Amino acid sequence: MKGKKTIALVAHDNMKPDLVEWADWNKELLLKHSLVCTGTTGRMVAATLEKQQGKEAVADVRLLKSGPLGGDQQLGAMIAEGKIDALIFFWDPMEAQPHDVDVKALLRLATLYNVPTAVNRSSADLIISSPLFDGDYKPVVKEYRNYVERTLKK
């Protein structure tokens, strides 16, 4: 990971207030990085980050589609292309989502490409406060060529 990171921020509807509060708490740090967010979450996060005491801040926020409308898949493609350095996904463990398969695919890609992933406030705090976060840390991505070739030979 380079100094300036591209951080993906995603939240299910019931978790959006928690993610916005977390973003506000970590405003100084987040303003130093590029953010990629799905739909409504992104608009809420951008509005929160751009409110600074008496002065305007400019947040670098790229908005994708809403998760159920393809935003999770857009984000998954960015992960596969190596364009995301960390995924902060406040998901709702208490409510089934109509796009659960997309969420599972997104988390699978984050795991496959070894992208640091937080699924709640505690893990998000640990990721962004790690000494590795500010450096040039480069996650090791497992080589799957042998797996793919073995599968094709069957």
Automatic annotation (TrEMBL):
It comes from the Bacteria. Residues 1-154 form the MGS-like domain. One of its GO terms (cellular component) is cytosol. It catalyses: dihydroxyacetone phosphate = methylglyoxal + phosphate. The keyword Lyase applies. The keyword Thylakoid does not apply. One of its GO terms (molecular function) is methylglyoxal synthase activity. InterPro entries: Methylgl_synth (IPR004363), Methylglyoxal_synth_AS (IPR018148), MGS-like_dom (IPR011607), MGS-like_dom_sf (IPR036914). The active site is at D72 (proton donor/acceptor). GO terms for biological process: methylglyoxal biosynthetic process. Its EC number is 4.2.3.3. SUPFAM superfamilies: Methylglyoxal synthase-like (SSF52335). Pfam families: MGS (PF02142). Catalyzes the formation of methylglyoxal from dihydroxyacetone phosphate. Belongs to the methylglyoxal synthase family. NCBIfam families: MGSA, PRK05234.1. This is Methylglyoxal synthase.
